[in-house]
Design brief:
The chain contains 30 helices and no strands. It is mainly α. Among the domains are: 112 residues, no CATH class; 94 residues, no CATH class; 123 residues. Helix 21 crosses helix 24. 33% of the residues are buried. One of its GO terms (cellular component) is Fanconi anaemia nuclear complex. This is FANCC protein. Pfam families: Fanconi_C (PF02106). InterPro entries: FANCC.
Length: 559
């Protein structure tokens, strides 16, 4: 046996034959042969790991169909796992075979087998070459084998957490690249074990670990696996750990944001409270207190809005997200709070400050003045000759759209308060028709003024019929211009909610509009936004709240 001198690199068949020949090294001759080949075997295992570490489990098994048999046999050879770094390298190889998304029963069974081998390797130490002695030792401690291994994992986690925290406090550069390599190795080791509850403290310590290197020291596989497990609610992490994950790994933040949008698109909202609950549960509004996260999430939302042609549902999600972000930002400790410019670095800062003021922060008697201030600033910006490109215009529009709460209040104030209608109507006309090519916005403004004048004439009437609103309804049903249709729908819906006689014909009127046009979702989202604002502002109008609920119940069946 001992005469094999040199072994060709990655001679898989040779080492599989050796592993079968050695078994668990129970004879003196096999033990001698194992010892003779240990350095070469370790080199082979290292080369094997380097070959499969980036290929994925499926490709690795296709390349080496008998890899499971080889690794399984070596894991039970006490001389192999007791030699230098062979035990660690075997773990890394097993991690490469683990399927993060098992597609069938075979892969599920393979994952279970790998976990059992990893637990075996974790519970093995260099002096545990005799199973009977090990069992006797465990029994003497008063544990069953299962209890012992459970405590062993916990102790290993505590040990690694302590080690990492000491490195953190002492500074990574003390041990240089060796320390960074060690942290990277620990992160790789965690990948197949991420959903083990006992491992959570180690996951959080790794995520919060920052060394002196400008490069990311945690493996991308680890970061992706943690994010995946968190999104699927297989693990629970502290907010700080999740925020650190998204800050250090952009693909995870992008995936979390897209996952959130998919989640919200897949459910029928009955209220914006439900949307807010899903948003808060994702932790993204809270994480957005960090400007880097906010700007990336905002960019993804912006792209989603463009891809869906500006649907009201996507816009509503963005507006609720912005409100929750502002709450989180206001709750931040003053010492850690970033200035608004960090979130909106390229925007006109006075306009930003005007938009971020929440309505409830101001007396209702000041709302009309504040709306005029916003409208005047916006108009000056839009009509500035420096804003020449459609991209610049879109960025200004998107900023305003994110703070849609003020737009809904603008439509309400037009009908219920003493406002300067010209300024407020211009604000709404800009939102629904930001471009002024071929005088589109100017024409929209003319249409809006006509509708507004007609509705104000009827506002105090207590006895109304659908015929009285025929002119306004025709401007919705008789036009194919989306911006005119949406703006008129916004004004008319508010008229029905807040006028003296609108309540009586609200259901009939909205039924007629949504039956003859494609505005069901527009009206529905407007109604749930209004209901959400009523619930959170303390405004008491039982008649309007009752009507809102009735209209929402009717529209839920159509949307």
């Amino acid at each position: 046996m001992a005469q094999d001198a040199t072994v060709p690199k990655l001679n898989f068949g040779y080492w599989l034959d050796k592993a079968i020949e050695w078994g668990q090294a129970t004879t003196l001759e096999s033990q001698r042969d194992v010892c003779l080949h240990l350095p070469q075997l370790q080199e082979f295992l290292h080369q094997l790991y380097e070959t499969i570490k980036h290929s994925g489990s499926t490709v690795a098994i296709q390349q080496f169909p008998l890899i499971g048999q080889l690794l399984g046999r070596l894991c039970w050879n006490p001389f192999v796992i007791g030699y230098d770094e062979s035990q660690k390298t075997l773990m890394w190889c097993l991690c490469c075979l683990y399927s993060s998304e098992p597609q069938n029963a075979v892969e599920l069974k393979a994952n279970s087998w790998i976990r059992s081998l990893l637990c075996h390797l974790l519970s093995s130490s260099k002096w545990e070459s005799n199973e009977a002695e090990t069992s006797a030792f465990i029994s003497a401690l008063g544990y069953t084998s299962a209890d012992y291994y459970c405590h062993l994992v916990k102790n290993m986690v505590i040990s690694l957490v302590t080690e990492l925290r000491e490195h953190q406090f002492n500074g990574l550069n003390i041990q240089g690249s060796n320390s960074a390599s060690r942290v990277n190795a620990v992160s790789i080791f965690c990948v197949p074990l991420i959903t083990l509850p006992d491992l959570t403290p180690l996951l959080e310590t790794l995520l919060l670990y920052h060394g002196g290197s400008s490069k990311e020291i945690l493996s991308s596989e680890f970061l992706e696996a943690v994010n995946e497990a968190f999104l699927k609610k297989k693990i629970s992490l502290t907010e700080s750990a999740v925020f650190s994950l998204w800050l250090r790994h952009l693909p995870s933040l992008e995936k979390a944001t897209l996952h959130l949008l998919d989640q919200l698109f897949s459910i029928q909202w009955n209220s914006l409270e439900e949307v807010a609950c899903v948003l808060k549960d994702s932790l993204l509004p809270q994480a957005a207190s960090h400007p880097a996260i906010f700007r990336i999430v905002n960019e993804i939302f912006k792209n989603a809005l463009m891809e869906t042609d500006g649907t009201s549902g996507v816009m509503t999600i963005i507006q609720v997200f912005t409100q929750l972000f502002l709450q989180a930002h206001q709750n931040e400790n003053k010492q850690h709070k970033f200035p608004l410019k960090a979130y909106f670095p390229y925007h006109h800062q006075p306009l930003v400050r005007g938009l971020v003021r929440r309505p409830f922060e101001l007396p209702t008697t000041y709302w009309s003045q504040h709306l005029k201030h916003i409208s005047d600033m916006l108009k000056a910006l839009v009509e500035d000759t420096n804003v020449s490109s459609l991209t610049d215009l879109f960025e200004i529009w998107f900023l305003v759209a994110c703070f849609g709460e003020w737009l809904d209040i603008a439509a309400e104030q037009l009908l219920t308060a003493a406002v300067e209608p010209e300024a407020v109507l211009w604000l709404l006309a800009f939102y629904y028709c930001p471009k002024n090519e071929n005088q589109q916005r100017t024409q929209t403004m003319v249409e809006a003024q006509a509708v507004y004048s007609h509705l104000m004439m009827l506002f105090s009437c207590t006895d109304l019929s659908l015929k009285d609103l025929e002119a306004a309804v025709h401007r919705i049903t008789g036009t194919e211009q989306c911006w005119n249709q949406c703006l008129t729908t916004h004004l008319l819906t508010n008229f029905l909610l807040f006028s003296c006689g609108g309540h009586k014909i609200a259901q009939e009127c909205i039924y007629h509009i949504t039956k003859t046009t494609d505005t069901s979702k527009e009206v529905y989202n407007l109604l749930i936004r209004t209901a959400y604002r009523f619930n959170h502002s303390g405004e008491e109008n039982q008649r309007t709240v009752k009507l809102l609920n009735e209209l929402l119940q009717k529209l839920t069946l159509k949307v």
